[in-house]
Design goal:
Length: about 110
């Protein structure tokens, strides 16, 4: 998932899509999400499922921690770093994902 799936896929393709490695790229999906508002597991499940993502070979990489405060939204950080990831994790579990990776922006 990405706030800019086109840019993410372009960078991944540039790095991994050349020299006979395209079969790896065929297994990657990216989609735009809004961690500030997507707090329902059913919304995440529908979105992930619509991309054909399910089963133990799926990996969810949580990049939400890279989002910061948002003007006018007092709960922005808890929305981004707790509510949305919890809903996404529940959906990933329901879809049988094999792995969940959290990227900590403080590293």
């Amino acid at each position: 998932m990405s706030s800019s799936p086109g840019n993410l896929m372009k960078r991944l393709h540039r790095r991994y899509g050349a020299k006979g490695k395209l079969e790896k790229m065929e297994t990657i999906r990216a989609s735009r999400v809004d961690y500030h508002t997507q707090h329902s597991a059913s919304t995440w499940r529908d979105q992930l499922g619509s991309l054909g993502l399910r089963g133990e070979d799926c990996v969810f990489i949580n990049l939400a921690g890279v989002a910061g405060p948002k003007d006018g939204r007092l709960d922005a950080l808890i929305d981004v770093n707790y509510h949305a990831p919890m809903a996404a994790a529940q959906a990933a579990e329901e879809l049988g994902f094999g792995h969940w990776v959290i990227v900590d922006s403080s590293c």
